């Protein structure tokens, strides 16, 4: 059932019926039956395997068609040229800003456009990929740190991912606010960042 894109679920059908009755007594609702789509996310359930899969194939297809990104060819070849490195995509330095004040740099726009085009091609190729939730452990988190990852500031990068029932529910990376003098310090900062994210989810 959907009420402003609301999905309801319960372990006991009686509890679900009670909740829906209370909802319908106060609001005008329209029961839509078993969920198959919500907020542009396709929901695929397999009761035999006790899994639920979520993907955005329909939404992504609309976006990619809007920008005329074609379907991938069947015989995919390895990319012979690598995407431009950080130096071409990095934020503008003070020197760049000085140059920009007197000269228009069209090359930055080209680099970013090529990076975006490659991202969209990746989305087209992986459009049917889904996040799968199954009968596994509850919350599992992983952390990592890229020591001295930012070459400009010498700061490390914290990274975190979290899974519930085997499905990814959060991921992220953040530049640390200090310059770590040892790998251990960078890793501890990453663990702290991951623990905060995990606590919010739990």
UniProtKB/TrEMBL annotation:
It comes from the Eukaryota. Residues 1-71 form the Reverse transcriptase Ty1/copia-type domain. InterPro entries: RVT_2. This is Retrotransposon protein, putative, Ty1-copia subclass.
């Amino acid at each position: 059932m959907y009420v402003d894109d609301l999905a309801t679920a319960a372990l006991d059908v009686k509890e679900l019926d009670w909740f829906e009755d209370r909802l319908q007594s106060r609001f005008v609702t329209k029961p839509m039956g078993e969920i198959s789509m919500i907020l542009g996310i396709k929901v695929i359930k397999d009761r035999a395997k006790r899994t639920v899969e979520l993907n955005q194939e329909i939404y992504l297809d609309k976006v990619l068609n809007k920008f005329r990104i074609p379907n991938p060819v069947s015989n995919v070849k390895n990319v012979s040229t690598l995407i431009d490195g950080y130096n071409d995509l990095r934020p503008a330095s003070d020197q760049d800003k000085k140059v920009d004040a007197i000269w228009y740099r069209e090359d930055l726009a080209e680099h970013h456009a090529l990076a975006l085009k490659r991202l969209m091609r990746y989305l087209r190729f992986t459009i049917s990929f889904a996040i799968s939730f199954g009968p596994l452990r509850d919350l599992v988190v992983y952390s990592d740190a890229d020591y001295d990852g930012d070459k400009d500031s010498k700061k490390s990068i914290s990274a975190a991912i979290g899974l519930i029932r085997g499905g990814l529910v959060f991921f992220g990376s953040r530049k640390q606010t200090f310059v770590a003098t040892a790998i251990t310090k960078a890793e501890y900062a990453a663990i702290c960042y991951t623990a905060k994210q995990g606590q919010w989810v739990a």
